Automatic annotation (TrEMBL):
PANTHER family: 30S RIBOSOMAL PROTEIN S1, SMALL RIBOSOMAL SUBUNIT PROTEIN BS1C. Residues 25-91, 109-175, 196-264, 281-351, 368-438, 455-523 form the S1 motif domain. Keywords: Repeat, Ribonucleoprotein, Ribosomal protein, RNA-binding. GO terms for molecular function: mRNA binding; structural constituent of ribosome. GO terms for cellular component: cytosolic small ribosomal subunit. SUPFAM superfamilies: Nucleic acid-binding proteins. Binds mRNA; thus facilitating recognition of the initiation point. It is needed to translate mRNA with a short Shine-Dalgarno (SD) purine-rich sequence. This is 30S ribosomal protein S1. InterPro entries: NA-bd_OB-fold, Ribos_protein_bS1-like, Ribosomal_bS1, Ribosomal_protein_S1-like, S1_domain. The lineage of its organism: Bacteria, Pseudomonadati, Pseudomonadota, Alphaproteobacteria, Rhodobacterales. GO terms for biological process: translation. Belongs to the bacterial ribosomal protein bS1 family.
């Protein structure tokens, strides 16, 4: 019986040992019995005591808040060390407790609270109430953070991106929280905005194409073309970062949450008055704002620009780049040619403000006027000569010389030669001026044969005797009478019966102004005279001989 009671007592004793003796590697409860030398002495039961540094009870950057008598949870690493004390850790207990809590938050996709306490390569360390997590640099804020100092030690929410308990890895994000709250804020701000509404905003950022304006948690884009009615080359001409501006909401895209803003919409549209202010063919002074290959843009007033097409820039400078006629910022006089209110376009003319130089030339140089100019160009069909008003006139091959072929006559001229010519025709519409060099001394042939026509009898001087006939001269114009035309009688068709200096009456058989030659014949004159005598003094059947008739005719002449 005694043996039985001893066994029962031993079993009860062992049971009590097992109950009171905590298992190594587990979290146990203990009581702080003393605080000394920066450590807390903790009774973990079964007469086991251990020491824990006070700093293990504090959050990073905070002082520990513990006192004797407080009950705390610690991690039992070993039941006894060399000094006979339990090896315990508050930090490891917190870590185990934290991991349980964090795994639940990760599963629920819930936010967790923590504080950034250190900087490591590529990011920061975060204390999540006992467990240390890694915060990558890209996950700190929505925009890159230059100075993370103000964020250190602050208790704030984080989102767990990844966690691996076995490896002890946790990756968190602060940016995800900010984006979520920003999205909520954006949705709220956008929900309160309507298209056409006027709001105040702060210029946050300026780019080449526009400016981003903060409307109180949400940014809107103010495009450069919506800043003013006039042409704006760069937004910094009118805006500064940090400036408060009044803008109109032009468009809200509900899907992308993009907001388009405008400033010019709050000002009067100058185009409403364009037609009244700029009637067709009226002349105005404007400023050249932009030059392109096809023309120049001229600002008539802020917000109203017109295009001077390259074809309307100069009467004389064709196929020239507009930049060689006008320069940016130059003040110019322009004429309004066309207005298209729907397309907001004004067509302007620069040359129309100056007189057409061909019109001016026609007025000041009527046909027959003598001009002088430099040979600008020589082509296969004639010479181009520079004239007053920066225009050219053309002398055609056929107008170079009376006596030479054009192809031969043009060889006498070189580029740069100064020549005289006569204006023969001005075509204002085709912008053409025809000149003649051969007409300079007048048309000698036309003057000489002015009253002469076919059938006329004229007196000529014999200038040369040749085998084939005789050369004669009339008013300075040379002609040749062939042997067969020297007489009606074959016996008298001899050139040698004439002498140089003789005066001879001849009949004109042809006037060729092209070859500038007179066709002359003594034979034709004799035949014509005979015919006339027969008609006047008798007929061939009257019995009178030809000698009688001619005799009577000669008497009549006397």
């Amino acid at each position: 019986m005694a043996n039985a009671s001893m066994e029962e007592f031993e079993a009860l004793l062992n049971e009590s040992f097992e109950m009171d003796t905590p298992e190594e590697g587990s979290v146990v409860k203990g009581k702080i019995i003393a605080i000394e030398a920066g450590q807390a002495i903790i009774d973990v039961g079964y007469k086991m005591e251990g020491r824990v540094d006070l700093k293990e009870f504090a959050n990073p950057g905070e002082a520990p808040e513990i006192a004797v008598g407080d009950e705390v949870e610690v991690y039992l690493r070993a039941a006894e060390n060399a000094r006979g004390e339990a090896v315990i850790s508050r930090e490891m207990a917190r870590r185990e407790e934290a991991w349980d809590r964090l795994e639940k938050a990760y599963a629920d996709d819930a936010r967790v609270e923590g504080a950034i306490f250190g900087r490591v390569k590529g990011g920061f360390t975060v204390d999540l109430g006992g467990a240390v997590a890694f915060l990558p640099g890209s996950q700190v804020d929505v925009r890159p953070v230059r100075d993370a100092g103000p964020l250190m030690g602050l208790k704030q929410p984080f989102q767990i991106l990844k966690m691996d308990r076995r490896r002890g890895n946790i990756v968190v994000s602060r940016r995800a929280i900010l984006e979520e709250s920003r999205a909520e804020q954006r949705a709220e701000v956008i929900g309160n905005l309507t298209e056409g509404q006027t709001v105040d905003g702060v210029v946050k950022n300026i780019t080449e194409y526009g400016a981003f304006v903060d409307l109180g948690g949400v940014d809107g884009l103010l495009h450069v073309t919506d800043m003013a009615w006039r042409r704006v080359n760069h937004p910094n001409e009118i805006l500064n970062i940090g400036e408060t501006v009044k803008v109109q909401v032009i468009k809200i895209n509900k899907d992308t949450h993009r907001i388009s803003l405008g400033m010019k919409q709050l000002q009067e549209d100058p185009w409403d008055l364009v037609a009244a202010k700029y009637p067709l063919e009226s002349v105005h002074t404007g400023r050249v704002t932009n030059i392109t290959d096809y023309g120049a843009f001229v600002e008539l007033e802020p917000g109203v620009e017109g295009l001077v097409h390259v074809s309307e820039m100069s009467w004389t400078k064709k196929n020239v780049h507009p930049g060689k006629i006008v320069s940016t910022s130059q003040e110019v006089e322009v004429m309004v040619l066309e207005i298209d209110g729907a397309k907001r376009r004004v067509s302007l003319g620069l040359k129309q403000t100056m007189r057409n130089p061909w019109e001016v030339f026609a007025e000041t140089h009527p046909e027959g006027t003598e001009v002088e100019g430099e040979v600008k160009n020589i082509t296969e069909f004639g010479l181009f000569i520079g004239l007053p008003g920066d225009i050219d006139g053309m002398v055609h091959l056929s107008d170079l010389s009376w006596d030479e072929r054009g192809e031969d006559a043009i060889q006498n001229y070189r580029k740069g030669d100064v020549v005289k010519a006569v204006v023969s025709e001005v075509d204002i519409d085709k912008e053409r001026i025809s000149l003649s060099i051969k007409a300079l001394g007048g048309d000698k042939f036309a003057e000489a044969v002015g009253g002469v026509k076919r059938g006329s009898v004229i007196t000529v001087n014999v200038t040369a005797i040749e085998d084939g006939g005789i050369e004669v001269e009339y008013e300075g114009m040379k002609s040749f009478i062939r042997r067969s035309d020297l007489s009606r009688d074959r016996a008298d068709q001899r050139p040698e019966r004439f002498s140089v200096g003789d005066k001879v009456d001849v009949r004109v058989t042809n006037v060729d102004s092209k070859t500038r030659r007179l066709g002359l014949s003594i034979k034709a004159r004799e035949i014509a005279e005979e015919k006339e005598a027969v008609e006047q003094y008798g007929s061939s059947d009257s019995g009178a001989s030809l000698g009688d008739i001619l005799g009577a005719a000669l008497k009549g002449d006397k």
